[in-house]
Amino acid sequence: TLTRFFAFHFLLPFIITALVMIHLLFLHETGSNNPT
To answer: Which of 5, 23, 33, 36 has a Cα-to-Cα distance from 14 of 20 to 30 A?
Structure first.
């Protein structure tokens, strides 16, 4: 359980960064495709 906790704690920043980048790309594409 402790090893799993350390693995999760190590991967968490990468997961957050990936989610943020995907979120920004999604907002950028929707904003660019908006005719107004």
So the answer is: 33
Question: What is the helix, strand, coil percentage profile of the chain, to 5?
Answer: 90, 0, 10
1-36: per-residue pLDDT in tens?
899 999 999 999 999 999 999 999 988 877 666 665
Please report the pLDDT score of residue 34 as a whole number.
64
| Residues, the chain | 36
Rounded to whole angstroms, the Cα distance separating 31 from 4 reads 39
CA distance 28 to 9: 29
